[in-house]
Amino acid sequence: MTKYVDERGNRVSTDDTNKTVDVSGVEARQGFLGRPVLMVLIGGLVLVLLAWGGAEIFGESTDNDAATQVEQTTPSSNETTGSGQDTIDNTPAAGENAEPTPTDTDPTPQTGTGG
């Protein structure tokens, strides 16, 4: 008989290596599912939420945007004409009528026949 050496250095005979063992699916499983696994998953989620909340609180406490006062002004109508900005004043001069806006398409329907 040939002898094999296992991972610990012990000699194992071929009779021991050729054995077949009938095991059910539950017994062959590495670990059991159920409540212990669920508790580990819930515990991990709680720890992640606590870490996220701590990061949010720390971020808000070090944020200085709330202390900075931002002042926004709206331009008056005199500033928009001729102040060098990239705006166009389309209002007609006093006493003139406004020109109609050009259209890209013909408002009348076209037919496919050329008759």
Helices, strands, pairings?
Blueprint: E1 3-5, E2 11-13, H1 14-17, H2 25-28, H3 35-62, H4 77-80
Antiparallel strand pairs: 1-2
List its traits.
35% helix; 4 helices; mainly alpha; two-stranded antiparallel ribbon; elongated; single chain
Walk me through this protein's architecture.
With 115 residues, this protein is mainly α. The protein has a domain at 32-59. Helix content is 35%, strand content 5%. The chain contains four helices and two strands, in the order E-E-H-H-H-H. The protein has helices at residues 14-17, 25-28, 35-62, 77-80; strands spanning 3-5, 11-13. It has a two-stranded antiparallel sheet. A hairpin with a 5-residue loop joins strand 1 and strand 2 (11-13). The chain is elongated and about 110 Å long. The relative contact order is 0.04. The model has no long low-confidence stretch (mean pLDDT 75).
Instruction: Give start-end ranges of low-pLDDT stretches.
Output: none
| Tally of individual helices | 4
The helix-and-strand class reads mainly alpha
Give the overall form.
Answer: elongated
Distance between the termini: 103 Å
Largest sheet: 2 strands, antiparallel
Helix content: 25-40%
Mean pLDDT, all residues: 75
Question: Count of DSSP E strands?
Answer: 2
Spatial order of the strands forming the largest sheet: 1-2
Our estimate of the beta-strand percent is: 5-15%
Order of helices and strands: EEHHHH
Using only C-alpha atoms, the radius of gyration works out to 41 Å
